[in-house]
Design a protein that fits this description.
- The chain is α/β, with parallel strands linked by helices.
- It folds into 5 domains: 200 residues, 3-Layer(aba) Sandwich (Rossmann fold); 95 residues, Orthogonal Bundle (Arc Repressor Mutant, subunit A), CATH 1.10.10.10; 139 residues, Orthogonal Bundle (Sec63 N-terminal domain-like fold), CATH 1.10.3380; 57 residues; 104 residues, C2 domain (Immunoglobulin-like).
- It has 29 helices and 20 strands.
- A 6-stranded parallel β-sheet has the order 1-8-5-2-4-3, with helices on both faces. Strands 14-13-16-17-20 form a 5-stranded antiparallel β-sheet. The chain has a 3-stranded antiparallel β-sheet with strand order 11-12-15.
- Helix 5 runs antiparallel to helix 6.
- The radius of gyration is 39 Å and the shape is globular.
Length: 768
């Protein structure tokens, strides 16, 4: 390490610190136990449980002892065996303090063991239970604590005696030896400077590995590099940062790494032959570097020109920005573009980012119940068969969290938290990665929805929208769902006092909830087709309105970085438009407008317009819309006439399922069934785009034009000539003049006699 940190101007100084520098002298003992070939690691581990009592009696000197076990289950088993085999002398005060601690514990098994002076500690326990056990052990009330190796890394709990029960541990489905670092870290817990002058560390292992551990404890630990396992990700990051710009600079960069220093000293560890000299090892590192660069180039993560200069691409920049593993990127390059939400979750469950999540045997029953159960709420997309793999476990936990299904097991809750921490950046990367393509509308839309679901920890159509509000957890959200408050609109319309009754809270809690909802952004989406269209192209005007933007000027529930993504796609799965729109832009004027050209799709004229919130479930708007083109669509021998443009809402979580969206403004030409009379003449609709066809000057707008079959040609020009002939046959008067004449006739038909003065009739003279 000193050699790696040194440079020509200032060499690093290496200080050697050995056992003599320890404040408490450490005695190290390695005990070997016979183990026959037919004895499995599990059974050997169980036999060691019955030898713990004698070791503690021999070496502990009635002082606290820490016993490290390989698995969480092994920790509990060993503690139960010791509680039966050994009796510890405890003072009356110690027993009273242990009784108080036991009463506070949630774990019933641990509560029983604690009164015997024995306890266990591992990462799968409740945090409150762990804190109580740590406190009891630190003050010396607890004679023996069984724990997993993770305690040696994270929590500072020194003891007089440390016992490592078995040197094998279970990793990735197989048993393997503890690393030298793990062993040294565990025995380093022996010795309490404030209480002891000496300490003892005992390693329990097989007889045939005893000598190995004696040698390990007497020698220094050699640190090796791990860069060669992740070189491709680091090279990409350096290219994105413009640190590495060509092959020469890449090789100079490799020479500056700790990998280069260690490869020269221990080439076999890195897969190089031991007989290589410095030039040979440099050549091998160069070969490894070029292979990784070619891998990046083959997936278009970087671009290499003929002179071997590198330039980062957008996918490469996203990979470095979100810190995504190369294997994950490779997996998503196989995406078809039509993936559903379920298929995307399955793909994400296979990502390299979740390799540290393990499937434990005791978890399978709970996971299978979440997947399929007749009597309980299960996940949205059940998987076939039983939960057998790590990927299936990840998929199940993702869906359970999004569906607000309670998971009682604390270990699974911890795993879920880890999955969502990594999943948040993986899903955000996926939506940005798919945004760079054009023929994957379905996958892009579902990736945007999934990224938002991971952020909110809710499905996009969830009834638990209230869970996103401050001070509302799962239990209060369930109460609101049971009361029928399943959308922000319904919560907004409910009286504050009624909310407090539902949630069993005191005022002004209801007012605070209503305030939060009132200051959420509320969007409205308007679509209007412009009168500029051809056979293959139409133009629409999309307007996004922030309906409560005046209220949001003073206070906002959403963050300043909240945005919506407008994504539009057609029936051919092509992305027509995709853009992020910040709330800060909408807050300036209250709306955002954009003219968008829509190319005619082969399948149909239907387009899907979606407004997806980045942070909130319940604010999205999704609409279907049919564009109008100059000529009707031909399907086989039939002509499909596009008589009416439509805009309908398929989802608006803000307004809820029972209340329809405000009608979208759609340019329909002002026609109605009563006004269109051309059908009675046996004609078809003309192509004029007059606003009100019953009063315009075109006769063809009222009577239509003859069908194509009656015309002498199918070209647009012959269609135009036939249209002219039809109009001339009806009237030779120009349309504008005819319109004026109609208006004059209407004026003349008004009965003017009603305005003429008429004297009253003379009354008859009465006789005197």
């Amino acid at each position: 390490i000193a050699e790696w940190l040194s440079d020509s101007k200032m060499p690093a100084v290496c200080l050697k610190i050995d056992e003599d520098q320890r404040p408490v002298k450490l005695r190290k003992i390695v005990l070997g136990f016979p183990c026959s070939d037919n004895l499995t690691e599990f059974k050997f581990d169980l036999t060691l449980n019955y030898k713990i009592a004698s070791i503690i009696q021999t070496y502990s000197e009635q002082k606290p002892a820490l016993v490290f076990c390989a698995t969480r289950k092994g920790v509990q088993q060993a503690a139960s065996v010791l509680a039966k085999d050994a009796k510890f002398l405890l003072s009356i005060e110690q027993k009273q303090r242990l009784q108080r601690s036991a009463n506070s514990l949630k774990d019933s098994k641990l509560r029983d063991l604690l009164m015997y002076g024995v306890a266990y500690h591992h990462a799968g326990m409740e945090i409150s239970d762990r804190k109580i056990i740590e406190g009891a052990f630190t003050v010396g009330d607890l004679p023996v604590l069984f724990t997993t190796s993770t305690l040696a890394m994270g929590v500072n709990l020194p003891a007089h005696l440390v016992v490592i029960k078995s040197t094998m541990h279970y990793v990735g489905g197989v048993f393997q030896e503890y690393s030298e670092t793990d062993i040294l870290q565990m025995i380093g817990r022996a010795g309490r400077p404030q209480f002891d002058s000496t300490a003892t560390a005992v390693i329990m292992t097989r007889w045939n590995t005893r000598e190995k551990y004696i040698q390990m404890l007497n020698s220094a630990d050699i640190i090796e590099s791990s860069l060669h396992r992740h070189l491709v990700e680091h090279l990409n990051a350096e290219i994105v940062l413009h640190t590495v710009t060509d092959v020469t600079v890449a090789l100079e960069w490799i020479r500056s790494t700790f990998l280069y220093i260690r490869a020269l000293k221990n080439p076999t560890h890195y897969g190089f032959s031991s007989g290589l000299d410095k030039i040979g090892i440099e050549a091998k590192l160069q070969e490894l570097c070029l292979k990784n660069l070619n891998d990046l180039s083959s997936f278009d993560l970087i671009r290499m020109d003929e002179a071997n200069n590198f330039k980062p691409t957008e996918p490469g920049r996203l990979m470095a920005w979100y810190y995504i593993a190369f294997d994950t990127v490779k997996q998503f390059f196989t995406i078809k573009g039509t993936e559903t939400l379920n298929e995307l979750i399955t793909m994400i469950s296979n990502c390299t980012e979740f390799l540290d999540v393990k499937l434990r045997t005791n978890e399978k029953k709970i996971l299978n119940t979440l997947n399929k159960d007749k009597d309980k709420i299960t996940i949205r997309f059940p998987m076939e068969g039983k939960i057998k793999t790590r990927e299936m476990k990840i998929n199940c936990l993702i869906q359970a969290q999004l569906g607000c299904i309670p998971i009682q097991d604390f270990t699974l809750t911890q795993d879920t938290g880890r999955i969502f921490r990594n999943g948040l950046r993986v899903t955000r990367w996926l939506s940005d990665f798919l945004a760079s393509c054009r023929n994957n509308f379905s996958a892009l839309l579902n990736s945007l929805i999934l990224a938002k679901c991971f952020r909110c920890k809710l499905w996009e159509n969830s009834l638990h929208v209230s869970k996103q509000l401050e001070k509302i957890g799962v239990s209060l959200s369930n109460a609101m769902v049971n009361a029928g408050l399943t959308s922000f609109k319904k919560i907004e319309d409910t009286n504050a006092r009624e909310l407090e009754l539902i949630l069993n809270r005191h005022p002004p809690f209801g007012n605070q909830i209503k305030e939060s909802v009132l200051h959420l952004p509320k969007y409205e989406l308007d679509i209007e087709q412009l009168p500029k269209y051809s056979d293959t192209l139409a133009e629409i005007l999309v307007t996004i309105k922030l309906t409560n933007y005046e209220r949001l000027q003073t206070k906002r529930t959403a963050t300043d970085f909240h945005y919506v993504t407008l994504v539009i796609g057609d029936a051919d799965n092509q992305v027509i438009f995709n853009q992020k729109i910040m709330d800060s832009v909408l807050l300036k004027t209250g709306n955002w407008m954009k003219k968008i050209e829509v190319k005619r799709a082969l399948k149909s004229e239907d387009i899907s317009i979606n407004l997806i919130s980045s942070d909130y479930v319940g604010l999205d708007i999704q609409q279907a819309y049919t564009a109008f083109y100059l000529t009707p669509k031909t399907v086989g021998s039939k002509v499909v006439t596009n008589q009416k443009l439509k805009a309908e809402s398929s989802l608006d979580m803000y307004y809820g399922s029972s209340q329809s969206l405000p009608a979208a403004k759609v340019y329909t030409g002002g026609r109605s069934k009563q006004e269109i009379t051309y059908k009675k003449y046996g004609n078809r609709e003309c192509n004029h785009r007059c606003k009100t066809k019953d009063v315009c000057g075109h006769d063809c707008c009222k009577t239509g034009v003859p069908p194509k079959s009656e015309m002498n040609g199918d070209s647009k020009f012959s269609l135009y000539l036939a249209d002219l002939r039809n109009r001339n046959s009806i009237s030779s008067v120009p349309p504008v003049k005819r319109l004026k004449m109609q208006m004059l006739n209407q004026a003349q038909n008004v009965d003017l006699k009603q305005f003429v003065f008429t004297p009253k009739s003379v009354l008859p003279v009465l006789p005197r």
